[in-house]
User: What shape does this take?
Amino acid sequence: MLLKLCYYDNPILRTQCKPIQEITDEIRQLAADMIETMDAHNGIGLASPQVGKSLCMFVMRQDEYDEENNLILGEPLIFINPKLSNPGKNEIILPEGCLSIPGLHIDVARPDTIFVQALDLEGNQVEKEFTDYTARVIMHENDHLNGVLFVDRISTESKTNIQPILKQIKEKFLKIK
Ligand code: ZN
Assistant: This one.
């Protein structure tokens, strides 16, 4: 089932999410619906607060390449109650976007690697280091669980520059909040 997205300035995007106590059928359904919603909007990551649920879970797809170097999206990954640690020492600057802030793509500096401990949908503890764009998506989505948006992680100058765009987004999506 497609879920309704929450857009910039919706207070749920600024709320600290709650850990998931038990992986119930409801949680499994939410994960499936989030993957469907992410794919429908051509996203590569989606966190629960973006669909109105203040729970510590996000879904994503890794970018992979076929033999001819065409981008293909990998199997969906689901992270429940993630804990991030040991960020890499090198910072990389690349443009990011967000389904909750449509139309805005702006450079964000993030570490090149990140270590993640999380539960999968079967309740198994997963511990793994991620690199490159996957690491970036994980850090972006994990930020959502703490009420942080990528527009918080840019320079003061960029923040000033994007104010008109944020204002437009607020006005455009006010009706469907
Ligand atoms: Zn986002």
